[in-house]
């Protein structure tokens, strides 16, 4: 009864705001924006964010894994090239990094994570990495950080076509096409993508090769916007992804199994602008994910299957009360249904409420606070909070601080998987603190952040006494670390130079055993040097990764570097760009996952055409 009364009060609060604001006759200016990206910017006071530019994404077009591996602090545990790719953010596990698609959390309800090798790298206008806890805004799982994938709908007259072609070693093929047609009333974007590879590279230091490693995937995306009138807009986002991967062998054993994925995402938004400062957005979403696993790819009649269907409804209220104060309130309902070979059909319903405030207290001091409460039958979700503060010490130096409480509920696999599911699991709870220092000059930017994360009842899959993998609540973990980034940018005459560098130190320990958590490197660094002269571009990127532990084994430290060249044919119609890239320039032997080597030196050719 209390829940219904609370929702009733909040609902009528929004209605009252709506009715009052409709009296406002201020002229409305509808600039192009992405509501989800604005929320990352406006309600992330004290939090570190990295925007992945289009040029960085194109340099790593193979997958979203490579885009982020070379340009962020995230470590990826990849089961071989193109295979399952799991992130570790600030020493947390894959299910504690949330992926947000146009404002919607799309982590799997089965295993709690997103496989970054089945997310198209060419489907989004914006990729933003937000470090630190985000459960208040984005729900279960956003403990280590969040990755935001967004599409921007703009109402201006333009027509654009982009075609990207790539061919590389191991018969690796990529094709993507992007079409935009828009005016002051309507926006349409259609995207197509295809990736495939024999992926049969020879293992370095071995007579073996990557047998049974072939894969292909294709995606189809539609983003549509319609301006009904001066105060109302409709926006529709669709992303469809289909994938088939043979699961490659290891150094120790051959393989003949295969895996198929289907991921369908649909989101409809109606934005009603009450005034120039106030709007209400109603959104409904439907997400469908399905996998099929074949332990013998020659026998297609024998497979295991799992699927989820998620329906989401939200009412999102935004109000810039003054130039210094912004508030946001969200009411949401989500129902998730899961079924599969390894568990019976189960359903979960969640009601959530979020309140956020951003206040520019003085010209140099600002803060943001957020609160979240969820209601569901199976677990007592804690009351969540987040506080971020930014103090501008002078024109070049900003000091920041944030603290938050975050959580993750057990997934359907955690609870019901047969064999191994554990109905006695508790929700994970996490507290974190962070201090940041940002120094900005005209050509140089430096940022140094220190973080502390303490988690209780961490869910981790480990072999039990019978040898069956099963999830358990680890008593407590403590993650302490530093993140340092440096950027330099300059240009003179026809020359331009960009240098980016990231370094992180992470100590993530199980407090009961006082050992480093598995697949968490203590030291990790990446850097990029990008030089342009007129129509010519050359870049060099490198990744250095410390050793990681896995149970009683250790995966050695490694470094891997790439170099690429691009040239724009300005004398040719539409000025196409051609490129050549050498991956793993020094032919280094390395593994991200035990007994699963990555490719040696390999090559790719690209052609990028705009018309």
TrEMBL record:
InterPro entries: Beta-barrel_TonB, Beta-barrel_TonB_sf, Plug_dom, Plug_dom_sf, TonB-dep_rcpt-like. The keyword Membrane applies. GO terms for molecular function: siderophore uptake transmembrane transporter activity. Residues 59-146 form the TonB-dependent receptor plug domain. PANTHER family: HEMOGLOBIN AND HEMOGLOBIN-HAPTOGLOBIN-BINDING PROTEIN 1-RELATED, TONB-DEPENDENT OUTER MEMBRANE RECEPTOR. Residues 166-585 form the TonB-dependent receptor-like beta-barrel domain. It is a multi-pass membrane protein. It comes from Polaribacter reichenbachii. It comes from the Bacteria. Its main location: membrane. GO terms for biological process: siderophore transmembrane transport. One of its GO terms (cellular component) is cell outer membrane. It holds the Pfam family TonB_dep_Rec_b-barrel. It is found in: Cell outer membrane. This is TonB-dependent receptor. Residues 1-21 form the signal peptide. Belongs to the TonB-dependent receptor family. Keywords: Cell outer membrane, Membrane, Receptor, Signal, TonB box, Transmembrane, Transmembrane beta strand, Transport.
């Amino acid at each position: 009864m209390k829940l219904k009364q609370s929702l009733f009060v909040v609902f009528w609060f929004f209605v009252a705001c709506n009715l009052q604001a409709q009296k406002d006759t201020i002229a409305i200016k509808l600039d192009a924006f992405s509501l989800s990206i604005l929320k990352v910017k406006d309600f992330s006071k004290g939090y570190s964010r990295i925007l992945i530019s289009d040029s960085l994404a194109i340099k790593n077009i193979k997958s979203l894994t490579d885009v982020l591996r070379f340009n962020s602090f995230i470590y990826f545990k990849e089961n071989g090239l193109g295979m399952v790719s799991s992130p570790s953010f600030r020493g947390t596990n894959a299910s504690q990094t949330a992926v947000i698609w146009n404002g919607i959390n799309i982590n799997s309800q089965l295993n709690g994570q997103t496989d970054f090798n089945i997310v198209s790298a060419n489907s989004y206008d914006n990729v933003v990495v937000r470090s630190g806890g985000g459960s208040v805004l984005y729900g279960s799982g956003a403990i280590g950080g969040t990755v935001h994938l967004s599409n921007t709908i703009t109402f201006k007259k333009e027509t654009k076509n982009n075609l990207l072609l790539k061919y590389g070693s191991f018969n690796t093929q990529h094709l993507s096409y992007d079409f935009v047609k828009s005016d002051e009333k309507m926006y349409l974007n259609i995207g197509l993508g295809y990736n495939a590879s024999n992926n049969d590279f020879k293992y370095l230091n071995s007579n073996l090769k990557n047998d049974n490693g072939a894969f292909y995937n294709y995606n189809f995306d539609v983003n549509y916007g319609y301006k009904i009138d001066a105060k109302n807009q409709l926006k529709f986002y669709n992303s469809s992804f289909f994938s088939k991967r043979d699961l490659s062998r290891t150094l120790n054993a051959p393989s003949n199994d295969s895996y198929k994925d289907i991921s369908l995402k649909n989101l409809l938004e109606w934005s009603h602008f009450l005034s120039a400062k106030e709007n209400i957005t109603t959104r409904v979403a439907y997400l469908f994910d399905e996998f099929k696993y074949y332990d013998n790819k020659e026998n297609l009649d024998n497979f295991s299957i799992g699927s989820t269907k998620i329906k989401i409804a939200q009412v999102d209220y935004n109000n810039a009360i003054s130039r210094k104060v912004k508030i946001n309130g969200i009411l949401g309902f989500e129902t998730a249904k899961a079924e599969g070979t390894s568990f019976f059909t189960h359903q979960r319903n969640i009601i959530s409420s979020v309140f956020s405030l951003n206040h520019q207290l003085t010209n140099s001091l600002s803060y943001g606070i957020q609160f979240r409460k969820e209601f569901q039958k199976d677990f007592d979700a804690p009351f969540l909070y987040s506080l971020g503060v930014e103090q501008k010490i002078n024109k070049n130096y900003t000091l920041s601080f944030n603290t938050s409480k975050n959580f993750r509920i057990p997934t359907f696999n955690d609870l019901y998987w047969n064999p191994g599911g554990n109905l006695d699991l508790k929700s994970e709870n996490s507290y974190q603190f962070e201090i940041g220092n940002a120094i900005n000059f005209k050509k140089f930017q430096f940022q140094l952040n220190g973080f502390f994360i303490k988690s209780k009842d961490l869910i981790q899959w480990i072999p039990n006494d019978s040898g069956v993998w099963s999830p358990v609540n680890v008593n407590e973990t403590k993650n302490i670390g530093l993140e340092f980034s440096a950027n330099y940018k300059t240009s003179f005459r026809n020359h331009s130079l960009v240098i980016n560098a990231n370094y992180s130190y992470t100590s993530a320990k199980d407090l009961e055993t006082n050992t480093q958590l598995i697949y968490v490197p203590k030291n990790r660094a990446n850097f990029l040097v990008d030089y342009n002269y007129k129509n010519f571009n050359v870049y060099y990127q490198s990744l250095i990764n410390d050793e990681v532990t896995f149970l009683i084994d250790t995966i050695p430290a490694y470094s891997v570097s790439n170099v690429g060249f691009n040239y724009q044919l300005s004398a040719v119609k539409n000025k196409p760009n051609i490129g050549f890239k050498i991956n793993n320039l020094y032919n280094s032997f390395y593994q991200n996952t035990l007994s699963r080597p990555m490719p040696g030196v390999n090559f790719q050719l690209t052609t990028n055409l705009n018309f």
